[in-house]
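#onboarding

Welcome to the new folks! Below is a worked example of what a typical request in this channel looks like: someone posts a single protein sequence, and someone else replies with the predicted structure as tokens. Don't worry about understanding the tokens yet, we'll cover that in week two.

Example request:
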Amino acid sequence: MENKNERSIKLVKRLIKEHVRPYFGKMLIAAICMAIVAASTATNAWLMQPVLDEVFLNKNAELLLLVPLAVMTIAIVKGLASYGESIYMEYSGERIISDVRYRLFSHLMKADLNFFHKNSSGKLISRFTYDVGLLRASVSTALTGIAKDSMTLIFLVALMFYQDWFLAIIAFFVFPAAVLPILYIGRRIRKISTSTQHEIGSFASLLSQIFQSARYVKAYTMQKYEKKRAKKIVEDLFNLIYKSVRVRSRTRPILESLGGIAIALVIFYGGSKVISGATTPGTFFSFITALLMAYQPLKRLANFNVNIQDGLAAADRIFQLLDQKPEISDSINAKDYIHKKGEIEFKKVKFSYDSKASHALNGINLKIQGGKTIALVGKTGAGKSTILNLIPRFYDINNGEIIIDKKNIKDYKIQSLREKIALVSQEVTLFDDTIKANIAYGNLNCTEKQLFEAAKKADAHDFISSFKNGYKSIVGEHGIQLSGGQRQKIAIARAILKDAPILLLDEATSSLDSNSEKDIQKSLKELMKNKTTLVIAHRLSTILDADLIYVIDDGKVLEKGNHKSLMKSKGLYAKLYKLQFANQARLINKIVKLEDYIDKKN
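Example response:
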């Protein structure tokens, strides 16, 4: 098993290969600018020798003019080089992070539904915010800080060895002693950072759940319970971050102490050489200036290891996500799906959402003729929605075959298959955008006339027009600004606009009242002409005209036929139908009795 150092090296190599390499050109320009800055810094330290020896001690009037001009020229050159280094390096760093962020998003767009079910939205969002933020800081540190400070240190150390090699050895003799504790601190930070990222993901997940479920939190008066949960995560985060601060801070006393020892030794030894006449005061002060200048970049370089560990921990988590391949993908020989009749057939299909769970579908067989309307009926959990989910390959089956137009759906390219399918579910999803944008999601190339026509057919145009901003009204996150029925109508308008040859309607009118449902049923009937349509309906009255009804129970087909034949057979369908209308009759009787009671009171 590879150790952490090997893992870190692999992560750095991968970052360079996959994201840093495209910007080598700009980084090379930045590196040249950094070298100029570093050389300018060392030159300023070297100028201390002629300033002290020639100007102050020997009173050289000619150098009194030349040295200030040199300092001014060096400052201008250094300033311009610093600007160039900053622009090119910051551009490269930000582009690298933007590429990582976009790559991560693009990868998640290819992920299966099962992946999103296993990973909470809060934890995924934390990858884009916290983890990418840490990586950004680390890349910025690595590209700008390490490169600049390393070059500055190299030039200053070279100057120190040029001035007095033995004094330079004394100055840096004590610093290797700091390497081991700093490496240990870096490993500790990496471990703490991983735990911190996990806790931030949990906190983001909790926030996402609470904000989306605020209605239920208040309805069940669970505010105290949720505050208690949040308090625990917040405290855990505080403890981890504070622990990280304590560990990071340990580098300061180590470096300050060693730096003090080095400077003390240099002053003692170098001062004795000046007193004995072995060296000039200018040479010694030039050396001291270079040493003091070198101390700051050296200290920052020592801390960079600690900071980079945060970024490497974040990179590790990001790459783990990027390395997860989708379970459902196009086969090598997959072809585009070209719609013919839209015939769909399930042959001995077995499927379970979890390998450890029982089968949601247990060897089911059913056949749907092209252009016909097929209804799926059964108790909750019978497997009706699962059948709909398998047709667009949201999931892949465990055994059996699903065939569309005489070919296994695995032989079609997924995108081409889904382009020919429109889905309206009881779980309506709207985006925090305008009503127009949400409807146009079904066909981005539609004209306004087509969009308005789709809204009219879905019985949505009137209520949309009543809003102050009409079709430009923002619906809010998950369509929170709209009622359940209004959301459902927009979802139906979206499907109408897509005009796909295969329609999947999973209780598409469940949120509508009876009158609205009747209006939309007319539009849906018009839409379903010459289209293969699978309908799951909560109200059995809405599927009376279906060409064929499959009664699903425990993942199998229990009965099939039209409404009349199924009622005659007196099986499960007949029982469900009678039970539903009996419940409606009881509800109507209760309403009538209540109205009579109110009339008598009045």
